[in-house]
Every structure is written in C-alpha cells, then in structure tokens.
Amino acid sequence: MSLNPDIAALLEMVQVGTESGSRIPFPQLTAIQARADFDASSPLLDLDPPALAYERQLALPTRDGAAIDARLYAKEEPSRRNPAPVLLYMHGGGFVVGSLDSHQPLCRGLAEDSGAAVLSVGYRLAPEHKFPTAFEDAVDALAWIGRDGLAAGLDADRVAVGGDSAGGTLAAALAIEARANRNLPQPVLQVLAYPGLSSRQTSNSYERYGSGYLLERSTVDWFFRQYLRDDSDRDDWRFAPLAAEDLSRLPPALIVLAEYDPLVDEGRDYAARLRAADVPVDLQVYPGMIHEFLRMGNVVADALQARAAIGQALASAFRAAGERRRPGMERQSI
Known about the structure:
By secondary structure, this protein is of the alpha/beta class. It has helices spanning 5-20, 31-45, 104-114, 133-148, 166-180, 204-209, 217-227, 264-276, 301-325, and strands at 54-61, 67-74, 84-90, 117-121, 154-164, 189-193, 253-260, 281-290.
C-alpha cells in the first residue's frame, strides 16, 4: 500500500520545518532539549482522552536505592478485594526522550479500551543513565507488582508487559527475563509496538525507510550513542532481544508494526523467531503507517483502531488467565 495521505502530509510538514530551521533534529540538540521538544510536540499528534476515574502517581523503588515515577490508570479504583489485571507499560523514545506525560493519551486509551489497569513507568533515561539501567528499572517495576501490587489493587497473576519503540524493546526483554526469574510475575501477554530488536541496523527496511519517514537513521544512531556504554552492549539481548539464543516458553506476543518503518523487518524477524520457538504470535502490520503512529490519533484513524485492537487482546488474555486460575467458575468480565 502507498503511504497514507495524512501521514504523507505530516512528513511533508516535518521536512519543511527541518529545511526552514523551525524544527531542529535531535542529533543537533542536547538530551534535555530533545526531551522538551518531544514532550511539546506530543499533544499536537495525539488525542488525549478525558481523565479516567482513577489516576494515581506512584514512586517505585529500584535496586540501587533510587525511586522512579510511575502513573497508574484505571476506569475505577482497584482494590485488594477485587484486584485489577494490569499492563506494565514502557514508553518509547530511544531510551533518551519520552515521559509519562508524552504517553499519557496512549496509556489512558489502553486502560479505557482494555478495561484493565495500566501502570506507566518513568524508567531512567540516557545519557545520565546508561544501559542497562532502563532494563533494570523495568524489571524492578515488574517485581514491585509482584511484591506490592496487591496493596495497590493490582493482580500479580494477570500481568501483561508492553511498550512502543524502545519501550517495546524493554517489554520484549522483560518477557525473557521473567521466564528465567520465576520470582517475578509471569506475563500472560507481551505487547510490542514497532520495537527495536536487532543488534545492528542493517535490514532492508532500514535501507528503504531510514530517511524521510520520521524515524531517521541518524536519530537512531544518536539515541544509541547516548544509551550504550560501548559497542559490545549491542550484542546483549537486554538491548537487542533478537540476540537471545532461546525464545521458547515466552508469553504470547501481539506485535504491532508499521509498513513504512525502518524497524519493520526486525519486528517481522522477531515474530518468525517466536513462532519457530512455538510461541503464539499475533503479527499486525498496519499498511501506510510510519513509526510512532500509535500516538497520532490527531492524524490518522489507524492509531485509534490499533489501540482498540491492543485493548481487545489484553482483555482476552486477562480473561483467559482468570479462567485458568478459577476452573469451573462462571466467566467474569475484567
């Protein structure tokens, strides 16, 4: 399919802004400047749903004694007596930009569409915090759900992990980590939206879409220079899940990709690797879309359609998990 006309118009605006100097590419900014620019542009792209009935700011402890911000979204207040299933969500932004605020519309929408709680994690960013800090923060957030989630009304037996872009990378790596560490809550689903998965950016889709389709090769290179300690980190599966030798016994995956995205080939490759390891995969490639389209509700209807599909997948996975835990009981909606 050809590029969606509304997406094409957006890309033209981006190009005009770059040529006029009104838009400065991330590699020409400091990390702090890039974060401010990313957060400022986010409301222009996405539709922010009304605030949910329950939204709570949290501080989650990490292994090194720090605390990271998190935000819990739910349609109604979860309780210990009726704990809610929960999606642990990691935002995108190349491990350098992105925030709880930039992804609030998406997380609100996912909570609305799934009927579950969504815990959005403000993991620490590079270059102040190099690899593997973001990954470890994600692991510590999942551990918090297992340890303290019930007190917050969250059901540690019905947990999914998810994220977009770099957040999808973290979610994929977190699923691998949870398989090895049975003390962690075991995810019932991994939701990977256009994740980065490969050690090296050498795919055909990088050659085709690495320039002119919003996510530029130069920007990806800049992100990784900020995040990685040295080049050897590229071959660590916690950064590049495709580098993991064994992908068996992982939770089912919903992989959402965009046709015109430099990352689309590695997403397809990961889906193939998971299927070869007998992991159930629902691969959805949205035609005419580009990287970040899930946060473009103001631009294309596909963003809301994809969000709704993710919500349905979460609701189904949580419902099935509840039924497995309560055999013979009447089916209940989440």
